[in-house]
Specification:
It comes from Roseburia hominis (strain DSM 16839 / JCM 17582 / NCIMB 14029 / A2-183). With 450 residues, the protein is an alpha+beta fold. It contains 10 helices and 19 strands. Helix 2 packs across helix 9. The longest helix is centred in the N-terminal third of the chain and has 28 residues.
Length: 450
């Protein structure tokens, strides 16, 4: 039997803020948003997390559930769990990027991928939903994780000098009556994610409209996330995030000097190194690093493995709890730092990565269970066919601009020292952009070559 699954989630973190998300849409796309999310508070099913602005209030059911538990302990468990997911995603994605070739830089946006897949998990059931929850929330209850994710996303800092914005949309194929979306699913994503809902024919105009939306939400950082729409695609779920932050203390021109970055094969590459002195020293077994603050709410974190230890070996042994505790327990020690200016892009298809992490059922044409998302009148099953993820980052003397897009495509079946410590990032290192209050990495990546 021929099968296909169609549903796409595009999660984007990037530069700048945008105005009307659906401006410039073609005449073939219809805004259906007003038809959903009209249930009275407390009636909507599901526990999806949502974006920064215009989100639904917490339901009484959620508040009651959280009151019955130790919220502090659950939040701490989520911070460890989220960081572990971030490292798992980076490790597996890095393997795909490297693919036995010379060292390449890798960056992923765990929040983007998590939000995209969490929307898909809302429409999943049975073992498919269980596997997705175990991958997204390692070591904790997926229901608890989803509730905390929603609360944290609502409170992520968004201020002058550190802009953050997140939005969601659902695209449903309206041509040929090949798919009937579940009304409760659309109500849930509208209420819980404040998602816009669009009906479209899923032709070339729809592909352009989705790409235009992503480009608008990323202020041009991601210009094309979707290459084409397969004939059997029936739904796309799109999550977009924007991030643009200035350093609390920008680098002066005199602090930026030519230097050499040494790849793991010993080859030298010329870079522009930004030098500074700070008191935010990080240390852990086999690595050391530093934090550097943005104007509001976020830190840039860099960790450098000890001399003689490859980034690959160190990263393979690093766990979420150790990483999280390290960045939460910085030492007030004066250090001299060197951070190279860099620009990076990563383009991934995450199906194999997510399968390796433990959620193969979501991609299985016959066994995937997304019955809460809708159904095909011809009886064919739906499953995830592709998870596309693109990221872009610019780090310079003024600050950081970063963008990411994730598309989940679902188709029908077919210490004190006398001399300052020096941490000069002139060889491969791990970096992350973390939210100060929780310490969770919004972006995480490696710099290995220029």
């Amino acid at each position: 039997m021929e099968r296909v699954t169609a549903g796409v989630l595009a999660a984007v973190m990037a530069v700048g803020m945008t105005g009307c998300a659906n401006s410039g849409m073609s005449g073939t796309t219809t805004d259906l948003t007003g038809q959903y999310g009209t249930k009275e508070e407390g009636q909507t099913e599901g526990t999806g997390a949502n974006g920064q602005t215009g989100q639904a209030e917490d339901t009484g059911t959620e508040d009651t559930a959280m009151e019955e538990k130790d919220l502090g302990a659950i939040r701490e468990a989520f911070e460890y769990s989220y960081t572990q997911f971030s490292l798992n995603l980076l490790r597996e994605s890095r393997k795909q990027v490297q693919n036995g070739e010379d060292a390449k830089n890798t960056m992923v946006c765990p929040l983007s991928v998590m939000m995209a897949l969490e929307m898909a998990r809302t429409g999943a059931d049975g073992d498919t939903k269980q596997q997705m929850g175990a991958v997204l929330y390692p070591g904790m209850s997926a229901e608890d994780g989803s509730m905390v994710l929603g609360r944290i996303c609502k409170s992520l800092p968004d201020a002058e000098g550190a802009r953050f914005h997140m939005s969601d949309s659902v695209w449903v194929k309206t041509a040929d009556d090949v798919f009937v979306p579940d009304e409760n699913f659309l109500d849930t994503v509208k209420t819980a994610y404040d998602a816009e809902v669009f009906g479209a024919p899923f032709d070339e105009t729809t592909c352009r409209d989705i790409n235009r939306l992503v480009e608008q939400e990323t202020d041009g950082m991601i210009t094309e996330i979707l290459d084409q729409i397969p004939e059997l695609a029936v739904m796309y779920l799109v999550n977009a995030v924007a991030f643009d932050a200035e350093w609390e203390t920008p680098y002066d021109e005199s602090q930026i000097q030519d230097a050499t970055f040494y790849a793991e094969d010993g080859s030298g590459q010329e870079v522009s190194m930004m030098y500074d002195t700070t008191y935010r020293y990080l240390t852990m077994e086999h690595a050391k690093g530093f934090c550097r603050a943005y104007k509001e709410g976020y830190d840039f974190v860099a960790l450098l493995p000890e001399e003689g230890l490859s980034l690959s070996k160190w990263l393979e042994e690093l766990d979420g709890e150790t990483f999280h505790e390290t960045i939460r327990q910085e030492n007030d020690t004066m250090i001299e730092t060197g951070l190279p200016q860099f620009t990076g892009e990563t383009d991934l298809e995450l199906k194999d990565t997510l399968t390796a992490l433990g959620m193969p059922l979501a991609f299985d044409e016959e066994q995937a269970d997304f019955s809460k998302m809708g159904y095909c009148p011809d009886g064919r099953n739906i499953s995830i066919s592709r998870v596309l993820h693109k990221t872009h980052i610019d780090v310079d003397g003024l600050g950081t601009k970063a963008g990411a897009a994730t598309v989940v495509e679902m188709c029908k079946e077919t210490a004190m020292v006398e001399q300052p410590e020096r941490i000069i990032l002139d060889r491969p290192f791990l970096y992350a952009i973390v939210e100060k209050d929780t310490g969770i990495p919004v972006f995480i990546g490696t710099v290995e070559s220029f």
